[in-house]
Protein 1
Amino acid sequence: MGRTFTESARRAQIVQGAIEALAEVGYAKTSFAKIAKQAGLSSTGMISYHFAGKDDLMREVAGEVMRVSQAYMLPRIEQAEGFRGRLRAYIESNIELLAVYPKHLAALLEVLPNMRGDDPSWAGYHQSLRSVMDVLQQRMAQAQALGEFREFDTWVMITAVRGAIDAVVTRWHTEPDLDVARLATELADLFDRATRREP
């Protein structure tokens, strides 16, 4: 049986409260009391009613961040022109998330290291990331076949792209005033030069 609109809205309210708490005080200090305060709830009982425990709620936080990220990035990537444009949009939209959804990304960076290896959300997150990288590899190979990209090992290139994005995200976590827009442009320019076929 599905959740009612009211139940879904309450869960979303709690998840948003958890995101704000995680971004503000970190994973260790994010208690149900802190989440209830952030979510504007009178007691922690409402959280316990909707979630089986902290792990259950943290899984939902990770899922929500991934949903928000995908909803922001996909339209930008799909609207870009050509393979070079889509690669640029992928890099820039990944890093733009830091400015558009700073609390969401900060929360995810708190949650992921605290998920156990056997946690289905941990496996789901990495499977989702792996799927995205597989698609990007396929697109790069198509761009090479059509002559838009030069010849290179697509796995090496997409691993370098992902590593560079992750490095920016990690640095931003300790330097929140980082000029992410400038870094997004620099990385996009760097990988455009690294992948394009020269005339």
Protein 2
Amino acid sequence: MGFRDRGIEIKTPEQIDLMRVAGLLVGETLELLRSAVRPGVTTLELDTLAEAHIRDHGGVPSFKGYSHPPFPATICASVNDEVVHGIPGPRTLADGDVISIDCGAIVAGWHGDAAVTVPVGEVADDVAELLRVTEESLWRGMAAARLGGRVSDISHAVESYVRAQGRYGILEDYTGHGIGTEMHMAPNVPNVGRRGRGPSIVEGLALAVEPMVTLGSKHTDLHADEWTVSTVDGSYAAHFEHTFTVTPEGAWVLTAVDGGRERLAALGVPFGGR
């Protein structure tokens, strides 16, 4: 059975280059938002800033109007125990909070999708460590991807790193995904699993890897807004995400401003960008 028969979209090098344009816009938008996070700012102010930046640079927000009920904003803004899909609004950030910002943009029909979790002012040591562990697990996952390998090699690397760092909850009901002409495509990219399972990693496959990790339970509740997902035990959560691909030269993180060159080099992974 071929990749396209299973709904997996394989891109040409030229199409990956177009995805890089969308990915770079997402990465630059997240850097702008990271610098704007501070006590006293509202999540709606961050959303307004994100939408203006994306549209001013030739993009369209991926999330706005997505699915049913239609998502009403440009970013997902999830605070503290909110893991993912928080809706921006009048909530004011306070010292000690963390905010997960998920952002997507479409340029010329191609999607980029990435997320960061940002501390607001000074946060507790265990919360700072949660953010470090989650972000590092994302990079370990991408670093495990090789042409000819399997998608679950990424999953195994994410899980193995997090488990080695302490007692954390890793969400299993929400996963990473394929991405390209649509934001969410096959295949799913779980954050737990054994090596050697799932579709092969081939040139032209683009994936969004997104570990979601908590200080407590892996179990979650869905809010009445039908979007916001929170931990059942009220524990803080972190969410990091990048869109990436693997070329014959190495890995290329399409939503990282530097293409992932610095972090990949630290993990001994060749850079495959152009």
Protein 3
Amino acid sequence: MPALYSRFSGSNIGRLAALSDGVFAIAMTLLVLELHAPVLEAVHHQRPLWESGALDSEQGLWHALVLLAPKLLTYVMSFLTLGIFWVGQQTQLNQFERANRHLTWIHLAFLASVSLMPFSTAVLGEYIGFRLAVAVYWVNLLLLGAMLLASVTYGHRAGLLKADVDHDMRLAHRRRIVIYQGLYAVAAVLSVINTYVSIVLIVLFQLNSAIAPRIWRLNRF
């Protein structure tokens, strides 16, 4: 009986990890491209004031940097987002004994969501006071979490995990994803009050995930 292509395609975990590293690196680099142009534009707009003596160049630059603050805030938030999800994906890949075609496509869908992050960040940075912009960003977070949850769930059902990955470890992965996605959803809903409330909460949740695992019980899973 001839071998089926689906039995051996997409089985290399190492290649999947290498592709993921490349996509994350490009997405993280693209985030910063939204930061340079507004400074120059804002400074040029202030030139008539400098010429009249009403505003000197240092003040003009400070004003330009203040105008850039929303995009800088969303840049920091998205860099944290991608860093957290990169760690999450690498943790999962390290626990797979092997891959198959279905698992590979789940992670390709995850990487498609990663590649959308510069777009959703640009939308939020440009329209930071709009609830719809927050919703676009939250949908991107939801897609990232959903794909990681699908990965660990499918990997267990398909018998792709290493033998030393026990029930508690699998449960910890799923619980962490679900809880943080719930927190992100709450933050997004609070944009009806103020979009900055949503953004600050998301950043706080991310900082808790990234740098405070020994302080808050939220990370003990």
Protein 4
Amino acid sequence: MSEMNYLDKLLSEVAVEWLPLGDVTQYEQPAKYLVSTINYSDEYDTPVLTAGKTIVLGYTDEVDGIYNASQDPVIIFDDFTTANKWIDFDFKIKSSAVKMITSKSEEKTLLKYIYYWLNTLPSELSDGDHKRHWIGNYTNKKIPIPCPDSPEKSLAIQAEIVRILDAFTELTAELTAELTARKRQYHYYRDHLLRFEGREVEWKTLGEIGEFIRGKRFTKADYAEDGISAIHYGEIYTRYGAWTGETFSKVRRELAGSLRYAKRGDVVIAGVGETVEDVGKAVAWIGEQDIAIHDDSYAFRHSMNPKFISYAMQTATFISEKAKHVSRGKVNRLLIDGMAKVRVPIPYPGDARKSLAEQARIVAILDKFDALTNSLSEGLPREILQRKQQYAYYRNLLLSFPKPEEVAV
């Protein structure tokens, strides 16, 4: 039986009642589960949660006020952002904005079914929105309950929908765990290769092997659909690695003479960043055309393999040294004179041809690892994206019951 025929049979001629979410769920305020201190450590046992993108903020040694979700799973719902997570392990809570959502009766409505349905709802948030959503909004939303007059059949349909979506979720989780392991392996191997232990190498400062060229200012008002190709500093740390000609920004052509450019082979470095880690991130520019750079960026001009330099700038050793030369404040800013003192390895320093050949060999190896762990066009990230899209498709298909016109979700 095909998947579509199976779903048609599962959902065919199913009577549906649309009930307010508040009729089938109950919520609990987090007050007695809030963590008292932020003395987090990986050595402690109990995770501290937020409903945002970073689910686990850290681990606490507090033993009182723990929510025992390992016994009774729960949905945590952020009242301000409407972000929600399925939690089946014990935890404490960081934010008072979080609510714990449970089913009023698992004999009528499965909590996991409610969770999957919640994630079919489109976001209604707007910029600057900072109001609470559960009581005034979400409890009034209508959730479809199949076969309301036959609880046994209703639970069977809910359970089968949950089983199918759990399978997709588990597959994605396995792939994500595999990707995490591969990234760790890649980072270890990259750092090992670029330490050159027991091999012929000389460590030189960036200032010894090249020069830094600061960009010229342009603003959002200068952006144009058809203009001069440009790299904005913020794009560097969202596209870490190498650019081959594809860009995110273009600025007005009439500014061409007042801008500064990175040439093919330059490494473009972010001079500021949202975090200390973002500052100093670099991309190798290997496109054919010169590209304009913002004045919070630098083009590092040198005679080495540009991708070799960008990989060297990703190692733990380099990042540790670079962090000493970041001015911390409202804006984290790279101190370029200090950056010029950070060292990178030069293989076979007495033989330029042999050195470049070794750099190219290392780049080829790391490119393969990078594609496996970071590329959305190949490797594990692409497969994970496909599985997430497949999951979302079937989730929406399974939970898109016929809806009367008078029902507003």
